[in-house]
User: Fold these one by one.
Assistant:
Number 1:
Amino acid sequence: MSGKVFKSLVTVSGMTMFSRVLGFIRQILIAGVIGAGGNPVADAFWAAFRLPNMFRRLFAEGAFHAAFIPLFQGKLVGEGEAAAKKFAEEVLVALIFILTLLTALVELAAPLFVHLIASGFKTDPDKFALATLYTRIMFPYLMMMSIVGLLSGILNSLGKFAAAAGAPLALNICLITAMLLYSNTETEITGQAASWAVFVGGLMQLAILIYAAARQGYLLKLRRPRLTPGVKRLFMLGMPGFISAGAVQINLIIGTNIASQQPGAVSWLMNADQLYQLPLAVIGIALAVVLLPMLSRRVKEGDEEGAARAINRSLELSALLCFPAAVAFIVMGAPICDALFRGLASDALSIFGGRQSAFTEHDVAMTGAALAIFGWGLPAFVWQKIFLPAFFAREDTKTPMNYALIAIAVNTVLALALFPFIGFIAVVIGTSLAAWVNVVLLAQQLYRRGQFQPGGRLASRLFRILIATFGLGVLLTLAMPYTDSFAEVLWGREWVVIVVISALGAGVYGGLALLLGAARPSDYKSITGKV
C-alpha cells in the first residue's frame, strides 16, 4: 500500500467520519423526536427507508463499483479517455431507463413492496399506510443514488475521492434540518418531512457529483439506450456483484421483514444498524473504496505480490481500528444507546421547544442488545469489504456471489428458526453469523488461489491487537458500574460520561497497542506494504 493510497484512505475516512458524525446527530434527533417501539411512525419510516438506503449502500459503497471500475479502467488504460467516457454514457442511459421503469412500478404498486419489506405491518393498517406513503416519497432516491454511484466510480478510478466521500453529508444535513423544523409537530407529519428530506438529500448529492465529474472532464451526455457489449458485460458482472457485495444489506432486508412481526423491532434494528455503521463506514467501506481501483490496477499490471501485500496491510489496519469499536459495542451497548438516544437527544431537543426524547427505557434495552450482538459481527462486516475487492479486481463476481447466497441462506434459516423463541434478536444473530461464514469462505478461496498470503507479520499483529483489545474490554467492564457516580460530577449527563470513558478507553488501547507492537508509528508515516 503506497503512501498515495494511504493518503487517499485518509481522505475517504475523514470525509466518511464527518458524514457519519452528522449521521449520529441525525439518528439521535430522529430517535428523540419519533421514538422507536412505542410509535408506529418510527417503524413505518425505517421500513420505507430500508430499501432506498440499501441501494444507496450498494451503488455508492461498493457493489456497483465492483463491476463498473474494472471495466471503466480497462477502457481508460486500453482505449483512452474518449472510449471510457463513451462507456460511462452508455451505462448512464441504461441505468436511467431501467430505474425509471422500476421507480414507476414501485410508485404504482407501493403496497406490494411494503409487504415485501415488512409483511408484519399487514396487521396494523395505519402503520402499513404510513410505510406506503413514505415509500412513495423516498423511492426516487434510488435512481439518484444509481447515478451518484456511476459518477463516484469514475472519480474514484481517476484517484479523486473527496467529492464522492463527502456527498452523503447532504442527506444528513437535510434530515437534521427536517427534525429540527418539525420536532414539535405531529409525528406523522414529522415522518413525511423526514421522507421529503431524503428525496431532497438525494438531489443535492447528485448535483455535487455532477459538478465534480464535470470538473474532471466527465460531464456525461444522454445517448439513445442501447445494449452495447460494454453495458452487457457490466450487467453480467454486476448482478452477481450486487448479490455478493450486498449480502449484508440483503440479509438486513430479510431481517427487517422477519422483525416486522414484532412491534418496534424494525426501529430497534435500524437504530443499532446506524450505530455500528460508523466504524464499518470509516474503516471497511473507506478501505474498499480505495482498495478496488488499486487492486484492479495492480492485477492488470501483473503485480500479484503487491496486491496480496495490500490485502494484508488492510487487514492489519482494519483490525487495529475495528476491534476496539466491537468491544465497546459488546460491553457498552445499552449505555451507549441510553446516552445517545435518551440523554443527548433530550438535551438537543430542549434547545428547540423543551421536549424530552421519545426513546423509552425499553427501546434502550432492545437497541442495546442488538448493538452488542452486532459488535461480535463487526470485524466480519469490515473484512468482507476487504476480501471482496480481491475478487472484483479480477472481474470475478460469481465466486463471491455463491458464497453470499450461502450466507443469506444461513441468515434466513437462523432468523426464522430462532425468532419464535427470542424475537428480533434472532435477526441480529443470523446477520452476524452469516457475515462470519461469508468471510471465512472468501478468505479460504483467495488462499487456495494464492491471492491471499497471510504471512507471519499479519498473524503476529493480529495477536497483539487482540491482547490490546482484551485490555480495553477489561477497562470498560470495570468502568460501567460507576457511570451513575461519574454522572453526578459531570452535570448529571450520562452521555458525557460515555464520551469520557470512550476517550479514556481509546487512550489506553492506543498505549497498549504501541507498547505491544500491535501498531508502530513508522507504519503510518510511510506505508511500504512489506510483509
Number 2:
Amino acid sequence: MKNLPALRISRRLPSACALLCLTAFICLPTFAQEEHHHDQAPPAAAAKPASDDTDYNKLPPLPADAHTDQTTVVDGKTLHYTVTVGTLPVRDEQGKVAGDLVYTAYTMDEPNRPVTFAVNGGPGAASVFLNFGAIGPKHLNGVGNADDSASDPTVLSDNQGTWLGFTDLVFLDPIGTGFSRSLVAPDEAKKLFFGPTSDVDYLSHAIYDWLIKSGRITSRKYMVGESYGGYRVPRIVYELQSQLGVAMNGEVLVSPYMNPAVDSQPDLSPLPWLLTLPSITAAHLEREHQLTPEAMQAVIAYTLGDYATAIIKGNSDPALQQAMIAKVTEMTGLDPTFVKESGGRLDTEAYLREVWREQGKVGSVYDSNVTMFDPFPWSPWPKANDPLLASMIGPTTTAMVNFVTQVVGWKTDAQYNTLSYAVNEAWDRNSPATREGSVSQLRQTIAADPKFRVVIAHGWDDLSCPFMGSILTVNQMPVMGDPTRVSVHEFPGGHMFYTREPSRIAFQKIVEDMYSKH
C-alpha cells in the first residue's frame, strides 16, 4: 500500500490545556558507523531464574557504564554525540538497593542543551520503540509497516526525524524491561515496581538521580511517553514538580493512554463508539488513497454530531438509526450486513477480522492496515498474536542487543526484555490510580506553570489508543492562560505512526517548535 504524504492537524485548545498498550523494538542490525569504546567492563553473567530462597541482591553485578562516540547526519548536518549505557540504583524505603534501572543516553558536548527523558508503555515495554523507532539518532528500518518481514536483515540508518538536534535524550527502561532488573523477591518486586503509584515513584527518583549524577539539574527538562507511557508521563512530571522540586518545561504524549473514563460503559455511553469510528474510517480512506486532514475533519464533525446523537437515542428513533447505519457503511466501506447487525457500533476485535476476512487475514489493533494471515480463521474469537507486534519483536530486540553489547560495548549476556509479559501480568490493575488516569495531574501541572507546554500526537489508524480519546479529553479542560500551550496532532499511520518517515519528520518539527518556545 502506498504511503501518503505526511498530514497533520494542529488542534489548538479552544478552552485551554489539553490509553493501555504494549509497544517496543528487537534481531542483529548492520552498522556502518565508526565505533570508539571506553569505560568498558568485563561481561556480566546473565541473571538466572531464582528459587524462593535465593538472595536476589547477590545476583552478578551489571557492567559499569559504557560510552561510545558516534555521528549521525540529519538534513545534511553532521551531529557528533556520545552514547552512554548505564545503570541507576533503585532503592526501597530503607535505602537498600532493590533494583537496577538501565538507561541509554545520547548527549552532545554543547552548552545549554535541554534534556528529554523517554519511557514507553505496556506496562512491560522497554524504551527501544521510541529510541530506534521515533526520536533517537538511529532508526530501525523495515519495521512496523505493512508487508515488513520479521526475518529481513536488521539495519540502523541515520534518523531524519531524530530530536537530538535540539535536545539530549535519555531512554529509561522500567524494572523488568530491557536489561533493567529487580534485586528482590517477586512478591516484594510486585509491591515496589509493578503498580501505577510505585512505578511513578521510582521512575521520578531515577530521573532526579540521573540529573544529579550527570550535573544537569539546571538544564531545561522535558519528558516523552508513548502509550501507557502517556499515562506515566503526566504523573511523573507532576511528581517531579510537586514532590521532588524538579521544574519541568514540557511533555510530549505519543498515542497516550491517559484517561480510562472515555472508553467505559459501552452499554450506556456513546464514548466507546465515538473513539473507534474515526480511526476505522481513516483506515478505509487510506486504503482508498483519500486520507486528508479535510476528510478527517468531516469525519470528526459527524462523529461528534449526528453519530453521537443517534447512539444516545438508540431504538427510540428508528429512522435516525437507519440513517446512521447507512452513513457508517459508506464511511467505513464495510459489508452493509455487518454494519447493520452491529447497529453501527463497531467492536474493535470484530472489525479487525471482518475488514480482511475475504483475504484470509486479520488486522492489527495498532494499525488495522498492517495485517497477517489469520492462522485460525474459523475460531469464534482471535487466537493469534497481534500482527504488528508479531513482526516487530524479533528485529527490535536483536537491534537493541547488538547495539548495546557490540556498538556501545556494554558487555552482558543477560536477557533483554523488549516486551515483558511477566511484568504486564504482574501489574496491579486494581489500584485507584489506574482507574483515575493521569488527566488530573496534567491539569495541575499546566495550572501551576504558565510556561509549561504539552504536545499530544496520534496516528489516525490506531484502535488501541484512538486519537478521539485525546480530543474528547482536551475539549473538557478549562482555559488556563495561553490556549496554544497544549495541542493535539494527528498523522498518517497507527499507534507507532513514526515508523513512516514523513509522519516522523512532521512530528519532529512540531516538537522542535514547542521546545523553541522556552
Number 3:
Amino acid sequence: MKHFDALIIGSGHNGLVTGCYLAKKGYKVGVLERRDTIGGAVCTETMFKSDENPNGFRIDVGSSVHIMIHQTGIIEELGLTDYGLEYIEMDPIMSYPLPDKKGVIHFFKDVERTLESISKISPNDVSNYREFIDFWGRINKGVLKAFMVPPSGKNIFLEMAKGQIRDGSMFKKGEQLTGLQKILGSYGSVVDNAFESPYIKAAMIWFAAQSGPLPDQSATGDFAGWQAMLHQSGAKHPRGGSGMLTQAMKNLIEAHGGEIIANSPVKNIDVEDGVAKGAITEKDDYYRSDFIVSNAHVQTTMLKLVGREHLDASLFKKVEDIQVGNGFGMVIRCAVDELPRYTAAPDDPYIHNGMQLLTPSVEYMNRAIGDYVKGRPPEEPAVLAMTFSKIDPDVAKDGKHTLFAWAQWHPYQLANGLQWDDIREREAEKIYRVVEKYAPNMKGKRIDWYIQSPLDIERKHGLLKGNVMHVEMNFDQMFMFRPTPELSNYETPIQNLYLSSASCHPGGGVFGAAGYNAAQVILKKRKRKLFKRNF
C-alpha cells in the first residue's frame, strides 16, 4: 500500500494542472491513470510504423490546438518549458478557403492582417470585424477573470451587467441594452447580425460551434465573441504533438517527488464515515491519500467511484440528470502522402499553418444539424482540418504528412437501430471526401488512418457519450451551475474528495482553468499560501 499527500484520479490535463500546483507547494502527488499512456484527452501516440515510414507518425488522439490555456498564465507559472514543452505558433490561427471560387480568408493573430485578408473578400465587413473584436474583447476581459476563480452563487451575467453600469468597463455609453442582448443571444444570431459576407458568417459560426451548443441556443453569443481573445493569445501547437503538454506536467510532478502510475484504472474510492481515505484499482491495489482529486467525468466519479451508498439521494439524482448530451463529433487522424492543395488557394503559403474551416455555408451546417437532431450522422459533414506536419516536422519525419479532420453533429445514440461499430468507417469516408472536395489532390493519398467515432471517444477517454466537453456547455450548466450547484466549488459532500475535470467550471477545451481553480480551493482549504495571479 502506497501513501500520497494528494492522489489524482486520471491524468487528463486539468488533473495534472492541479497536481503540478500541489507538487510545487510541497505535496507528494500520486496520479492513477487507467490507460497505458498518460494525458487523458491531451495525448499523442506514435502510429503507422512501416518499412517505408520507420519513424511512424505522431498522432494526437484527443485535442490538438491549444488556445485558451495561453490566456491563463498557467504555462508560465509552472515553468513548463523547463520540463520539455515547446510551442509552435499557429499563424494564421485558422483559414477559410472559399467553397465556390478562388480566395481564402485568413484569421491571423494580428487584427490588422486579418482585416487585410477580409478586405479582399468582403470590404464592407472590415469595419464590422473591427467593431466585433472591440466589443467582445471588452466583454471577455471580465469573463476570463470569472473563469479563473471558483464560481460564486451569483448570476454571472447580472453581476457583469451591474459592474459595467457602475464603471463602464465593458459597454460603451448607450450600448448597455444591445450589449446584453448580444450576450444573451445565440452565437448564430450574433454572427448573422454582425457581418454581411456569407463566407465570414460560415467561418465564424463553424468555429464557434466547436464549444458544443447549437448555433440557435440562447446565451451562447460569447462562443462567437471569444474570437476577440484569439487575437491576444493566438493558437499554438506543442512541438511533437498535443500530448507534449501533459508530458511536461508529468515531468514536473516527478521532479517534485511525485509518481504517475499508468495501467491502473480505479474501481472505487474508499469512503469511510463520509471521508475519502484512498482509492482501489481494478487490480485491487490500494493507494491511501490525505485527500483525493478526481479528474474523471463527474458522473463516473460520483455515481460509480463513490456510489449511491455514500450520497444523498437527491444529489445522486441531480448528478444522474446532468445533461451530457447526445454525442458531439467524430474525427479521423490520417497519415497522408502530401498536404491538401485547396482549389480555392492552391499556392497559398499560410493555409497549412493553422486550422482549415471546410464548410461552404450556414445552410450546409444547418442541414448537418438537422440530421443530428433526427439521430443520424450528417450526410454532408462540416469539417475542421488540421495539418500540423507543415509547421512541425517532428510529427511526420519520413517526408510524409499528417491530416486530422474533425467533423461535428454526430449523435452518440443513433436512430433506426444503427450502431457505431457498423457504420464508423462509412462515416469516416464521408469526412475524408469533404477534404477531397476542397482539395482533389488528396484522392488516393491516404496511407493509413485512426478513426474516432463518438463511441470510440467514449471508450478511449472515458468521455461519456463522446462529449469532449464532458457535459453540455449550455448556460444552465455553466458557472455556478456546473456540474451542479452543490458541486460547483470543486468540493463534494465526501470530505477530502475534490473535483478538477472539465465537468466543472469553466468547462472543456485545453484550458486548465478547472484544474487551476481546484488547486486554489484545495490550498485555501488546507491553509497553504495561494499563488499569485497575473491579473
